[in-house]
User: Fold these one by one.
Assistant:
Number 1:
Amino acid sequence: MMTRRRFAAAILRLTEDSALRAQMGRAGKAQVQRYRLDTVLPPGDGALFICCKGNEYMIRENQRLLNQLHILTDGLMVFLAMLVSYWLRFSLFRGDRAMPLSHYVWLGLGAAVLTLIVFAVAGLYTSFRAVRFHVEASRVAALELLVALIVMAAMYVLRFGDTSRWTVVFFYGVSTALLVAKRAALRLLLRHYRAMGYNQKRVLLVGHGDSADLYLKKVASDKNLGFQVVGYVADSRCRADLPYCGGYDRLEDIFADTSPDEVVVALSADESDRMPAIIHACEKDGTEVSVVPFYARYMPSDPQVDSINGLPLINLRRVPWTTWATPLSSGPWTSSAPCSSLSSPRP
C-alpha cells in the first residue's frame, strides 16, 4: 500500500518530466487526464490513476473536509444541547434530580448520533446553495422534533421513566436554536467569501434562448448563490456577455477545457432532440447536470412532481380542493376529470 509521502514523491517526479508536463498542460493550466505511473512507482504498488484538472483535486478535498466538519459540529452541538438542557432543568429551574448527570451524558450521545443519522437520511447534508434559509431552518426544526419524539419514545420503551421529560423539551428548543444559528452563521460566512470570489461553483450553460436568458437573469440577481457561469455551448455565437465554448458536438472537449462543477441544460423547444447526447456526455464525464425546461417561465417556483408508474408529472397549477376530492373525482360515477399536469420525461 502506497503512503501519502510516496504518493507526493510520485506526483513530483511526474510533473518534473517536461514531456509529460507538456501533455498535462493546456493553455497554462494543468489538465491531467489519466496517466499510468507504472514507470514512476516501485513495483508492487500497481497502477495509479490521477484524475485532476488544475486545482480541482485540492478544492474537492477541502470541500470534503468542510463537509466533515459540518457534520461533526452538528453532533457536538446536539450533545451540548442536552447538557445545557440538564442545566436549565435542574440548576436554573431547580428540578428534582431522579437520574444522575451521567445518564443525560449518554442520552446526549445517543441523541447526537440519532440526529446525524436522521439528517443524513433526510438529505440535509447535501448542497443547500440554491435553497432559501427559511426552508433549511424549517427542515432542521422538523427533523429535530422527530429526534426529540424518538428520544421520548425510547425513554418509555427502555423503562427510563425517571428521565425528566422537561429536559427533553428543553433539548428540542436548545438543539434547534443551536443548529439553526450555526447554519445562519455559515451562510453569512460563505456569503462573505463568495463576494470575494471564493467558493464559486463553475457552471457551464448548454443551450440558448428564453430559458437560458431566464437562468442567467436569476443567477445574476443573487450573487450570494456563488454560481460562476464559465461559458455557453450553442450551434453558433449568439451572446456577447459570456465566452463561447463551442458547439454541441464538442461537449467532451469543452468539459476538459472548462472543468465545470455543474452543467445546466437550457435548450429551446426545437433543440430537445439533443438532450440524450448531452446527458450521455455529462454521465461519461461524471459532471452534475441540471435542466431548465423551455416552459420554465410558466412554472411555479416550487412545482409539485407526481409519478404514474415511473412517469414524472409536473403539476403546473394545483387546485387545493383536488387533494381531498380525488377519491370523489376518480369514482365510477365520473366520466372524465380535468388534468392540470404537464408530463416531462425525467432526464
Number 2:
Amino acid sequence: MKLITGVLLLAASALANGLDTLVKIDTGWVSGSGVGVRVYKGIPYASAPVGQFRWKPPQPAKPWKGILVAKSFPAQGDLVFLYGTRSVLRAASKLPKRVAGLSVSVNPNTFQYQFTRVNGIGRQIHWGSFHASEIPYIWETLPDSVYGTGASFLGDFSVNADTYNEQDRKLSRAMSAAWVAFAKTGSPNGAGLAHWPAFAVKESYMEFGDRIAARESLRKRQIDFMSEFTEGLRSHVAVSAASGSRP
C-alpha cells in the first residue's frame, strides 16, 4: 500500500510540474520546461560550499526526495537582485528621519515588493515572472511590455487573446494606485489599497501576483547564505593579502 501511495503521489506531482519533461538523474527526479527543446535550470551539481565544505574541492550534491522543479535560476536572481537590494533596504530603513517633529532612527517610508504574476507572455517564452514584467502593470499600459509586443531575438512577445485576463487588469489597477500614492505622499498606502507594511517592520514586503499579500523576510535563508559566504570570502582574501600568500 505504501508503494502504491508513493507512486500515486509521484504521478500527481509529475502532472503538476510537467510530465513531459520529467527525467531521472543520479540525485533524483527533475522536471523542466519547454516544448521540443527541453530546458532544465538550477539543478545542483555540488553541495553548498559552507561549513566543513568551505575552501574544499566540490562535493557531490545530496540526493533529494520528490521532484525538483528546475524551471528557473533562483540563486542567480538572488545574487543579481536581492542580495544587494536587501543591504540597501536595511540601510535606507534606518536613516534618521523626523516624524511629528521628533528624530527617529527608523525610516517608515522604505518599502519592498516582489512581483510573482506569470502572465501569458511569461508562459509563452518560458521565463515565468521575468525581470521588468511588472512595469506595464504599474503604468497601466498592458498589453505593452518593455520588450515590445512582437517577436525578437529575446523571444516571442506577441500578444494573444488569452495573454492577459481580468486578474492582470485588476492587478495593474492596484499596483498603479499604490505607486501613485507613494509618489504623492511617500507611502503606498491609502483608502481602498491593500495595507503595505514598511520594510523596517520585520523586513516586510508586498507580493503582487495571483494575489496581493503582505509577507516577511523575502528569501531570507538564501540571502543569509550569500552574505555569510561572501563575507567569508572577503575575510579569506584579506588574510591572504596580509600574509603575502595567494588566496
Number 3:
Amino acid sequence: MPRLVDIKSEYADTDYHSNNKKYNPHLCPYNLFDYKYHFYPKKTIILMKVLGIDEAGRGAVVGPLVIVGFAIEADREPFLKRAGVRDSKLLSPRQREQLAQQLEGMGEIVIQKVGACKIDNYRKAGINLNQLEAMKMADIINFVQPDTVYLDSPDPRPDKFGLFVKKMLKHDIKVFAANFAESKWPVVAAASIIAKVNRDKEIEKLKQKYGFKGSGYPADPDTEAWLRAWKASGKRWPECVRQSWETIRQLEKGQRGLLRWLRKK
C-alpha cells in the first residue's frame, strides 16, 4: 500500500486562518477540504517525470471542486493506455473506481479539494474559477516538481492559461495546456478519473449528512428539487452549497421558471 502524507496547501486560504476576524469556523471550516494527499508508489526513484492535472465539480452548485495531479515516469506512461486509462466520461463509475485503485500503485497522486464556501469566498475576493484552478494547479506542480506537466485548461485559450500557471511556478518546467486534455494525454485522463472518483465520494458523504439527492450540477432535476426543498425549509444553506452561483441567487430571489433558465444554459 502507498504511504499517505497530509500536506497543507502553500496556497491555502490564509485569509481564513483562525486569527483572522473574518474567519468563521462554523460557516467555512478552514480544514474542510483544502489539503493535499500524496501517494508514494513502491518505486520511489524517478528519472523523467510527467504530470497530468484535471478537475471534477467545476460547474457544480453543490459539493467541492476536486483538482488532481497524477505523475508517472515518462517511460511508464504507455502502461496507462494498456491499463485502460482514457477519458473518464467514457467510463462507468465502477470502471473509474477500479482504475483509480490501479493508478494508486502506478504513480504519485495529489488531490486538492476546495469546499463550496471556500469557492464563494474566493469569488467575493475577486478570484474567479479559472484563477482558482490555476493557483491550485501551480500548487500541485510546485509540490511534485515534474519535468513536464499537461493541464486540462478551463480557458478556451489554453496557451494563455498555461502561461498564467507557469508564472506561479518555482522551477523551469515545461507546461502544456489544452481543452479536453483528458482525451489527448493519458496522464491527464488518469488525473480525471481520480478526480471524479474522489468527488463522487464527497457527494456520497453529503447524501448521508444532509439527505442530498442528485449529482450536484444545476441542470440535474434531483439537485434542483433538493435545493428547492432546502430553501422551503427555511434553514440556512449548508457549507456544501455554492451560494455565489446563479442557481442559488435565483432561488433567493424567489423567481419562478428556474428550471427553464437552467435548461437554456
